[in-house]
Amino acid sequence: MSMTTVLKLVEERYGSGRDNPTLFAGKCQTLMQVSVEGSYAWAVAVFLRAWALEQTDDFSGAARLIEKLLSSKDSSDLDLHPYPALPPLTHPHPLHPNNAKALQKRLNTVSALAQASAAAYEREESAPSILAADSPQKLMYRVQLRSEMPVGIRFSFQEDMSLSTVDLLTVPVMLTSDMSLFRSVDFTEPVILSIRVIVAPAGSLIPPVSLASAALVYSTPETVVLDHKGKGVIPVSVSFHPSASFHQETWVIWIYLLPTNNDRVVPLLIGPMDIILSDEERDEEFQSCSPIRVSTVQSQNPDLNPSHLFTFEEPDSGIHGRLWDSAVVLCDAIPNLLSSIGFIGTKDAPVPKVMDLGCGVGTVGLLIASTVRAHVVLSDLPDCVSLPKKNLIANMDLITKQGSHVDIEGMWWGDEEKLAQLGTFDVIVAADVVYETEYFDDLFKTLECLCNDQSEIWLVYKRRGLSLDEESGFFDRICQTFKEVSPSDKVLGNVAESIGCFLRRYRRAS
After folding, report:
1. Where residue 204 falls among pLDDT bands split at 50, 70, 90?
2. Sign of the dihedral defined by the CA atoms of residues 350, 353, 329, 470, in that order
3. Are the C-beta atoms of 173 and 143 separated by less than 8 Å?
4. CA distance 37 to 117
5. Is 331 helix (H, G, I), strand (E, B) or coil?
6. 378 vs 59, which has greater pLDDT?
7. Would you list the DSSP string of 74-115?
8. Which of 142, 301, 390, 426 could form an S-S bond across to 352 if both were Cys, CB 3.0 to 4.6 Å?
9. Cβ(455)–Cβ(483) under 8 Å?
């Protein structure tokens, strides 16, 4: 097998292979069959076929191929440094010992995707039997990355960057629900994503400028249309603004993907990734970028410009690392809810004390602290508070300008000593906390301890895995201690109703 044939296949990986991964996987299979096992050609073909199978969601097949690479013995010359390594490998030969760690990491990721895909299929097949007959058929989706992104993007600096367009990278994305599902029946038309690119000096976790317009660059293309499976590959090229001026070696880039034609799709911010202006050739490193979700802040402080709240997700860390649907739809209703209980829209409005119970990534509590001057406590399990701390730090300037104070507490539900230390709150936010019957007793005890006679609970619930008896049992029980404040249903809006989320507001029964 000639080296030219192999390198041509590698080149196709970045061209036609992305456009038609099924056909590309077939070409890789052919090369595997005519190559000697353990050779460079065979190893490259196996590695590229695994990549292609990932693009077609055959994660089990991809895992088997990566396992084959890890168990194979090399039988060829490894001196291939003139040829570039395939991401995320560090050496041009897939079987080189230096690549073992990267291959094992990829195997772990693909195996997890295979398990999640199988579990998602089982959940989708069984869901109709455990939901109410009138349960909505639509899901809310997120724009998600399909692969790791480079740590740094390297290109040659030119004196007048405004005269040229620079191809930076390609971004493979897909749509998934908060339970890692995708159903094409949920979409009557393809989803269109608007692409905004922000370039700024290094040193910040979040963009230091407004997302309304790109800083110093224009992105091409400006939009991309996802396919019928909710997938797409976005080529990111930039043309620098004539006023652009670079005075340091390292800048960073954020890429903002904003759905323009579907309000059930949550946007995605990617970054920061280093942009390195240099002609020096280096091996490219890749990283798992944490998805960043963006919430619009309707601040009640007239001295603050319209702004955004940025919250990082860590979906692989467990349920506390995701922004769940109930929190997404609740964020849109925060200004109206605060106004309804007199904390905004009135002269000399009091400073509310707010508990975000089971805060997860912390979005709802942080949004409240960014909307009005408030004392907010974000609480979750003791080993789940590192992510809300990161998100607090990322948004500290916005919260400080609002005059708010945010504390983060690790707490087990039902811990009476801890609850006594925290005291009572004006508002207790509880989004997507009703999902396991074994926690109901501790949840009720916690709500009772946090509430005084004037407290209000905002409980947002989405039907998932509880049976109808378990669901009705919870709401019957909460009404024994608290009374419902009406009206509640229409506060969250039509999107919440279409995906099965509803709000219940409670106060202690007199």
Report:
1. confident
2. negative
3. yes
4. 30
5. helix
6. 378
7. --S----TTSPPPTT-SSSSTTSGGGHHHHHHHHHHHHHHHH
8. 426
9. no
SS3 of 483, please?
strand
Q: Which amino acid is at 275?
A: I
Helices (H), 226-372: 325-340, 363-371
Q: What is the C-alpha to C-alpha distance for residues 19 and 96, in angstroms, rounded to an integer?
A: 29
The total number of residues shown for the chain amounts to: 510
319: tokens are: 């349920």
- Token pair in block for residue 204: 């910040």
Neighbours of 381 (CB within 10 A): 13
Number of neighbours of residue 152 by Cβ within 10 angstroms: 16
Q: Cα(21)–Cα(55) distance, rounded to whole angstroms?
A: 6
Q: Is the pTM of this model over 0.85?
A: no
Three-state secondary structure string covering 11-79: HHHCCHHHHCHHHHHHHHHHHHHHCCCCCHHHHHHHHHHHHHHHHCCCHHHHHHHHHHHHHCCCCCCCC
Around Cβ 98, how many Cβ atoms within 10 Å?
13
> Under a CB-based contact definition with an 8 Å cutoff, are residues 249 and 275 in contact?
no
Average pLDDT for the chain: 80
